[in-house]
Amino acid sequence: METSLTDIFPESYRMYFRTAQGRAEQVSEIRLRIGGPAILMEGCREVFLREDGAYTEHMEQAWRPDRQALGEIVSHLCQYSLYAYEDELRQGYITIEGGHRVGIVGQAVQESANSIRTIKHISALNIRVAHQILGAATPVLPYVYRRGSMRNTLIVSPPGCGKTTLLRDLVRQISSGNTYGPARTVGVVDERSEIAGCYMGQPQNDLGPRSDVLDACPKALGMMMLLRSMSPAVLAVDELGSGEEIRAVRMAASCGVSLVATIHGMDMQDVQGKPGMGALLSEGIFTCVLVLKRDRQGRCRVAQVLHRRQAGGVWEEVAGDGQAGGF
What is the DSSP string of 71-111? Predict the structure, then answer.
């Protein structure tokens, strides 16, 4: 669902983003800090925003929002009801219409030793502008499928290299059906509201006609809930990490469900060294690994594709740098 970039902001501040609106497809992040320079990211390129909305390379010329400006922007983002967004604020972010995710920091108000009730005196925002790239997963489909069946696939990527973008389009194409395999029901556990970009429970991104999204739910719990309630043929999760999540993946695999997941990592060796992941990979639960990088122009690319041989459990490279495309 399309939302104008300037619509993210109150009307009185939209002029600050007039240049950014014209380049909305390139803008990935907008960072606003009280008293700090307004910063935009376009891929790997950092620019500053002037008060007239123009870009500048000079930090001293940048617009510096004050507390009132940031407060008005936050109120607008929360539809002038911070209370309604309290559950999301305690996680440190909110998801707004269009699937854009807004990271929020300030003074944390603790509910207990291990939980936050809310954040007050908000001091900085990181607006991650949602971009769905339809077709991003098309070049990797020949590696993800084998004779019409889907390989359990793990996407390995450093932060900001497109793992969620690739996962999102892979879910869409699995759900819709494609040249390499039939349409399948996909259960998506979207703990941080990044895959589907749900707003008020409704996905803002296209995940295909056969995808069921469990939004804002812990991954380990969500995988078990979907297995019990929605009978998915495929489970999709973003950013595996904890022992509970790895155990849930193992259980899902034992139920005969196909898997597609992402994990932070620089390469295969890095991932194999993470607690629990080495065992998961050696057991053959995942049989396809896609390693992502960014090129010098800031474009995401598939740097390596690895398949696990059934005989001996050896991993072999089946596609090298750039052979499986980029986006």
Answer: HHHHHHHTTT-GGGGHHHHTTTEEE-TTS-EEEEEEEEEEE
Distant-in-sequence contacts of 81-89, Cβ < 8 A, 24+ apart: 86/117, 86/118, 87/216, 88/216, 89/118, 89/119
Give the up-direction half-sphere exposure of residue 136: CA atoms within 13 A in the CB hemisphere.
24
pTM: 0.84
Q: CA 202 to CA 95: how far, in whole Å?
A: 11
Eight-state DSSP code of residue 181: B
CB 251 within 8 A of CB 117: no
Q: Which helix (H) or strand (E) holds 212?
A: strand 211-215
Indicate the pLDDT class of residue 1, thresholds 50, 70 and 90: very low
HSE-CB of 292 using CA atoms within 13 angstroms: 27
DSSP3 helix / strand / coil % (the chain, rounded to 5): 30, 30, 40
Strand partners, 202: 199
| DSSP β-bridge partners for residue 234 | 186, 258
pLDDT in tens, 26-76: 899 999 999 999 999 997 789 999 999 999 999 999 999 999 999 999 999
* CA dihedral (104, 109, 113, 114) positive or negative: negative
- Residues 236, 239, 242, 248: what is their CA dihedral angle, to the nearest 10 degrees? 0
Cα 13 to chain centroid distance, Å, stands at: 27
Give the angle 266-164-246 at the CA atoms, nearest 5°. 70
